Fold these 3 entries.
Entry 1:
Amino acid sequence: MAATLRILLAAGARIDPHEVAVGQQVYLGGVSSGVAPDAWETLRRTGVLLKGPITTPQGGGYKSVNVTLRKALGLYANVRPARAYAPFVATHHPAMDLVIVRENEEDLYAGIEHRQTDEVYQCLKLVTRDGCERVVRYAFEYARAHGRRKVTAMTKDNIMKLTDGLFHRVFDEVAAEYPDLQADHMIVDIGAARLGARPETFDVIVTLNLYGDILSDIASEVSGSVGLGGSANIGASVAMFEAVHGSAPDLAGQDKANPSGLLNAAALMLTHIGQGEVAQRIQNAWLCALEDGFHTGDVAGPHTLQHVGTQAFADAVIERL
Amino acid sequence: MAATLRILLAAGARIDPHEVAVGQQVYLGGVSSGVAPDAWETLRRTGVLLKGPITTPQGGGYKSVNVTLRKALGLYANVRPARAYAPFVATHHPAMDLVIVRENEEDLYAGIEHRQTDEVYQCLKLVTRDGCERVVRYAFEYARAHGRRKVTAMTKDNIMKLTDGLFHRVFDEVAAEYPDLQADHMIVDIGAARLGARPETFDVIVTLNLYGDILSDIASEVSGSVGLGGSANIGASVAMFEAVHGSAPDLAGQDKANPSGLLNAAALMLTHIGQGEVAQRIQNAWLCALEDGFHTGDVAGPHTLQHVGTQAFADAVIERL
Ligand SMILES: CC(C)[C@H](C(=O)O)[C@@H](O)C(=O)O
Ligand SMILES: CC(C)[C@H](C(=O)O)[C@@H](O)C(=O)O
């Protein structure tokens, strides 16, 4: 986070960062949501959260902070770009450049689970017309605003004819309002396989929460850029930006972590708050640093690499702004 | 199916095939399950079904025959081997050779879906201790019987702590009874990504129904051998064998379909009924045919190919028995 903020300020981002506490320390301080009470007020005021990697204490029983924030703040769309940075980062799919828009509040993530008997357990998958419409419309608006051509929905509506069927139906309805964009639908099993094997054939994908969870990990892996991607969680009044990768508590404070995921999340944030030109400057400088062979230790690349620490990597980006 | 049966009989399989009707014609004849009434009696008597590719009429409202058969016959474990046949079939992962054992009756496939209002839809995910235990135990027994070393469970129990948590807990309990086998667990999003990128690191995977559906399509795609894999649906008293790929109605009757998927399913069937040596003979002859460059039109390979029709391909296998 420190490295990322340093780059943002050096690039001339007009931001006034306020720190709030979420995760490990808050849980251990006895707040079961993992979100410090005063954080909510700050979040509602600023409307924007850049979230660093957070840790949940071992041992279970703790609710995911991610899921809590998504639900409490009404962050209905999770936007996850996945692209190749060939030849600077190794991948079988140099042409891939796609965005997954994942529904972010409903589905099996609604958190409605029961133990009926010691032998029988249930989880409720919830899908609403509003939830579908919000995220599908967001996907089409995003596609149009970013010069993308095609939106692909993925569901399993050959089995779940009501719930996934609703998502598919709403998709078709909304798609009809965007005749300038192509729209198609795939069954998610075949879609996931195709995404793994031929990611370059996708543009924007919109899907339900759980499928989006799985698909975005596949996309990020085949791009070769796990650890490099940023994501946006969009709500009506608040938006949250974070790296796609999870936390690596064993790397904390060692000047080893790769700031790229959070930096790319910050670039999405700057675009969101109308500072797209600063975002562009940062991403160009970051790409130049990769091009010049700078990488933190986690990245494998085909050409000469200079493995450097977190702060040296940030310096390399700043020098290229 | 005709090509496959021809090979089976030529190889000396001791079988007495009875034909039963399922799918398109049965649906159109007004049987809503898609399974002809007299089929049930035959199935219960023989205990073994080799199922050809079937078609469901267009237009929705039809229940999947696959799901109906799995549930009505209590086929609790769906076994899907996925391996590379390099260099005869192109793949990035020549060393991959894994088996997915998928729970086959529960989860969101239980078919419990409701429309609460026109705006709110629900689907119930059902997980029982018995269901978990049956399939997990089957996976460990399978691994032991087939000289495999490791069983990996995949769940999303960081979100679904009760349902997926139960599967994970039962997995750990059963694993403790098989100290000769390695056992590990992955969250399914990361597991799916790893499967797509490094399938050679897996051996046996056991998982819930829907995850298994998605994971097996990924595995089959990265093996390069979609269209070549066979699968087994195992129940206490009946077993059903089928190709992993779906039907291709536009190829029917044109001598173009690839019989390999059904042939490999038939090999699993022969092993299941104690004719493993015939199965082995068939698979060797089939591999020799691939090695000699025989392929139906759907397969892309790196070396000289002879694209032949279904029956000529079967002849090539039979010549090599
Ligand atoms: C950590 C977990 C709760 C989360 C999810 O399942 O959504 C993660 O996998 C993600 O994709 O952001
Ligand atoms: C056709 C469909 C019902 C089936 C499933 O979802 O199980 C298929 O995708 C499969 O994997 O066998």
Entry 2:
Amino acid sequence: MKKIDTEIISVGTELLLGHVTNTDARDVSELLSRIGVNVRWHTVVGDNPGRLRESVEIARGRADLIVTTGGLGPTCDDLTKTVLAEAFGLPLVRDEAEYAGLYDFIQLGRIFTPNNYAQADLPAGCTVFHNDWGTAPGCAFEAQGKIVIMMPGPPCECVPMFRKYAIPYLRKLSDETIVSHSLRIFGIGESTVDQIFRDEMNAMTNPSMAPYAKECDCLLQVTAKARSEAEAEAMIRPVMDHAREKLGDAVYGEDVETLEEAVMQLLKAKPLTFAAAESCTGGDIARRFTDLPGASAFFLGGVVSYTNGVKAGVLGIDPALIEEKGAVSFEVAKEMAERVRAITGADLGLGVTGLAGPDGDGVHEVGTVFVSMASAEKTWVRELHLGAFRTRSFIRRMAGNHAFDMLRRYLTGLEV
Amino acid sequence: MKKIDTEIISVGTELLLGHVTNTDARDVSELLSRIGVNVRWHTVVGDNPGRLRESVEIARGRADLIVTTGGLGPTCDDLTKTVLAEAFGLPLVRDEAEYAGLYDFIQLGRIFTPNNYAQADLPAGCTVFHNDWGTAPGCAFEAQGKIVIMMPGPPCECVPMFRKYAIPYLRKLSDETIVSHSLRIFGIGESTVDQIFRDEMNAMTNPSMAPYAKECDCLLQVTAKARSEAEAEAMIRPVMDHAREKLGDAVYGEDVETLEEAVMQLLKAKPLTFAAAESCTGGDIARRFTDLPGASAFFLGGVVSYTNGVKAGVLGIDPALIEEKGAVSFEVAKEMAERVRAITGADLGLGVTGLAGPDGDGVHEVGTVFVSMASAEKTWVRELHLGAFRTRSFIRRMAGNHAFDMLRRYLTGLEV
């Protein structure tokens, strides 16, 4: 694909009031970066035709591809579509297939005003992106040397539609294909990854390689440009293998987003069940894993033992041990993993106890966390000192990552 | 405050790659909207001096206030500060207090390069915002008829700094004060709230009133402009009282963000303990409440009974009942709340069982959820049909909202 400088224009007053986060711009950017399209600007404007028109003029002057999100559909009078069609001199014409589809929706009992049918009016000659997740269709067209793609605003419509329709549309515009894969890394920071590969990265052009920091882990992205997908894949593979070798078992997955997702993949290949006893993570390990559809095949459940009473009464940990060693201790963490495994009948038990702050316990520094895992044969405990300057949410997330990392290492036969 | 059209420019290539969400723009927008400042544009550019310079020129041409986030500090060579100072013709001069502060940091063992000291170089004559949460200071200045405010990028620095320093700085620029309060509403949608108040809202100018949709609830914001805060508060109060009266017990709090926060406030006033037995929410109720510091005074813990085995083995629900009525049923929900209350010794027990999708159970439609609450005297169960077209995350969040809503109603003496 040629160099395509891209601007994403998100339309919605709720974004400017801070009532909604612009996750569309983030997710569309990530999808575009994976096919080698450079996003140079994000712009947000409210539901205001004048300001949208101005923003479109600015974008037209500097970008090759303009992606809009939001401002489609009846509640905003199809603002974006009207302004963009006008800016590129295209009339809006009724798409009969979309019109029929909207008509069918009425039969399902949704209330439609005449205004709703205007969603089926689209720029003449555009490629229609049917919305399988809502009512307002998206579309794409080329005009005046620019590419324009319009997507609905709700993230649960915008993102799957962009993946399903807009990415293949963009791929077709070029005889070059860009393919990108990432290695997801836990236990080594982005700056260390950068140091390991710096010389190589500077010497590489195609494929290219770059590390990126995420909240509690990082990733290494490898991207290749070629005439076919197969050729690009063939160029990427040896680089990925080489990087995997250098990074060793800090790599927890390829093209995954989270440690729990990597664990889910491993469990699908090697079915085992697990349960979790959580203190400072307060249910976040259970929540994260059960966010994934299909979790019930592997996750039996857990106990949120936020107080010593629950640690004793529900998990069955000896109160004298808690009294002697303290709730935040190696010994109690060990018991938590073993007891939750025993009472749920799971193959593996996880345990987490620690101080997420802001208040301490007078004994340990905030950020002290013990994470444990019990199998039939053995129990492992990691002692973490995540730093008293860290936020509560960072400490909770990082503690959960360590728990999933222990599972991951166990399932892949690594030393836990 | 006069009408201040505002543009937020966020600087960071990681935003354009989709690796990071622009929560700074959202949070700064929300803080500004509360003091009546209109945010008209968000712009994101990468770590690129040329494109930042262009964006600053555009912003200067249309906005009265430019807020930048990110691009301060050593990793990006203080890009934003350099470009903004140049654009407004101000030299950078060393701030001795900030320099001394950075020097002290070295004593704490952090590694500094000479480049780090450049963080203490700030536009001549600016107001320095000391960074109590990191190293790079922020600042504000007025030049060429514009106001410029620069903030560091990490959200845990940007947001508290903006609240502590930038908001008072902006308030001081005006002899008018804007005060805003919100009523948070659960159980009535934004469009209904809009209908209830539409005529009044159209007739109002100062104070003004507007409803906004959030993910699983909505809010009504009341804003007044006056010469003093006391005067603005006095103007707002009768409008808030009137709105509260019209909305009745759908109002769950004033100036709170979530139902769990409202529950926390109620529990602080009337201490009771609770526990939760969660099936389809998978620990999210526990996670949400324990996200709040101080949760341990009221939340004893819970059981994530993701499988029937845990419902029986850990909660002690009769397997025959689960067999007869099904895991997703009124009866099992009732037992879950009662049993978790019994085994933890809490004053109140919550229970949630349902289908979050995407897979169904062959009996109920996805989105069917039973939410329950047990006290010593009585157990209540709500049967919800949240809609099969909803996402898994929506169903889980909404189910949790209902559980917190039942707690909230109980604690305020309303019918549950």
Entry 3:
Amino acid sequence: MKFNNRNVFISPKAKLGNNVRIGDNTAIYDNVEIGDDSVICDNCVIGEPPNAYYSAKTYENPKTIIGRNAMIRSYSIIYAGTQAGDHFNTGHRAIVRENTIMGHYCSVGSQSIIQGNATLGNYTRLHTNVLIATKSILGDFVYIYPFVCFSNDPHPPSDIVLAPEVGDFTQVAVHCALLPGVKIGKMCLIAANTTVVRDVPDESLVVGNPGKIVGPVSMVKSKEFPGQNHYPWMYTFERGMPWEGIGYDKWKAEQSKINDNK
Amino acid sequence: MKFNNRNVFISPKAKLGNNVRIGDNTAIYDNVEIGDDSVICDNCVIGEPPNAYYSAKTYENPKTIIGRNAMIRSYSIIYAGTQAGDHFNTGHRAIVRENTIMGHYCSVGSQSIIQGNATLGNYTRLHTNVLIATKSILGDFVYIYPFVCFSNDPHPPSDIVLAPEVGDFTQVAVHCALLPGVKIGKMCLIAANTTVVRDVPDESLVVGNPGKIVGPVSMVKSKEFPGQNHYPWMYTFERGMPWEGIGYDKWKAEQSKINDNK
Amino acid sequence: MKFNNRNVFISPKAKLGNNVRIGDNTAIYDNVEIGDDSVICDNCVIGEPPNAYYSAKTYENPKTIIGRNAMIRSYSIIYAGTQAGDHFNTGHRAIVRENTIMGHYCSVGSQSIIQGNATLGNYTRLHTNVLIATKSILGDFVYIYPFVCFSNDPHPPSDIVLAPEVGDFTQVAVHCALLPGVKIGKMCLIAANTTVVRDVPDESLVVGNPGKIVGPVSMVKSKEFPGQNHYPWMYTFERGMPWEGIGYDKWKAEQSKINDNK
């Protein structure tokens, strides 16, 4: 099966933690650091050098950091200069360009691309085939669904970069386009195939092309628990969440205490 | 040219039929069976183990079956536990996740992804960049065009999986989104960039966001044969179809006889 | 770092110019010609044979031409029979199918696919995840943004191929669908998530699903230079353009003189 050490390239300048498994045909370039117990599957490239490498007379690969317990699936490309927290997860063929900073428990789905210099909080997930434009900012627990595209040029082509921002807990459903510079608040739901053309306040439900606010997100009824609201979803969903088994409010209270003691 | 037997990995537990060609850099994992006269091009992975492989102390790769006369193009990944009938065809970088069952003459285009536990009938084709959600059910002769996304979570995130179903002969044009759990009937045409938000009866033409039924599919006039209808397309298109040269009605009558004799 | 000459395949029938660098795991097939100072990164395939290769008893790979100063990023697949001018650039995993003719300074972004027999002028750029249908024709300085899909079958499935055409300088923003056979004029702006359903005259701004002409492109005001128009963009954007430093009008006048002297 896997991990036969076939055709693997690991730079002598890379630092691998304990119990790191590297798949066949994978390349780990200079100045990559990978945390303990991580799995890098077959055919991956970690520490992919940005453009300067091809033209510079002297070149030093920027540091690339992958936390502990990563699971990076085959054919993914993580550029040099990028950092992922612990429990980083990718699908197949994810691309994360340079100087992207990701928190813990982030996930980048198959064929999704982060174009670089972006920021993702903790527990933020990109599903399959998502495109995150350069300099985008995503909070914690943000989920972006397939074929969503963030854009950042208000009148292409131009020299202006206006990246979108998405607040904590917000869900952006399949096939949405976020226009340059839109700021979406916390705990919003952007419905499938919506074009987000202006800023969206917290807890809004947005639908259509152009996207319109049709009400508070609390108007969406649960299909799981009849008569109840589904949103805010922190109270109705806990699989894999840090509040699993204890509930969101208790977890949040504990987090506040931890932060107070710092 | 190709098939130089460079950097190939074939598990001793895989079974390859007669005249199977395996491309360079390809991996065929445990318990894969490939039918006679199939071509697996370069850089493919057949029998990709699902997540359990990375954590299980003992692991047995589920059986993966690829029928005869397959043409699997380079960089495709077929998960363990999946079955394809004869004449299976992929573009480059197709992904078919675990426990998907596909009939004969199915095709999965370049960069298209089937997320697993899905069912496809015979002669069903996914064009380029299609995403089929977990547990989706597609009938026979269904064609799905580029950038179409099936979704399956009615209010994300949740623990409910409501996958779409698409009936025989239905055509879903480019850039459509199918909302969770929609059932599209037989011989429908879903126009480009439509969001399918509710069930669609047989032989409907659906357009817009949200998608509306604008009439029967028979209202679409042929650009090939002026004054005639184009749909139902079984009467106007036969290239590569089993009724090629004899017509749909005669083929169908023959099929009925064959089924009666069983 | 890169270019270790690991697991490289170069056909003895390929012709490489001076100072061409070939990445690890890359295959260069028969009858490929690559111009001086080009970089082909890791895991690429140049001269990928079309279908005939797999069945033909005798097979000669068509000539594939890549100009000087190309930068082809990892995992890209360029089919045999395709030609790119000088300064050709790709992202990761671009696919350019057979018999596509591209001018100088063209660029095909990550995961973008040109389906073959297409024509691109000079300085034409496909951003990430673009799909260009067979036989499409794009002029000079055309920019196509992520998740844009060109389609070419007016009533699928059929035997008719009606590919879109896009005129010089036109910009097609993210998530647009171009219906079969539409002809978009020069210097148009197609807004995000627009479905282009009919021909578009020069200098139009098109918005919506179905796409409607909402005015001349000159009505879009600059966010960079308040009070000014942004379009025609040749007067407001010059980074990487041949008129950089001298202005569009002067460059155009020089081009006319050069053409007159031919």
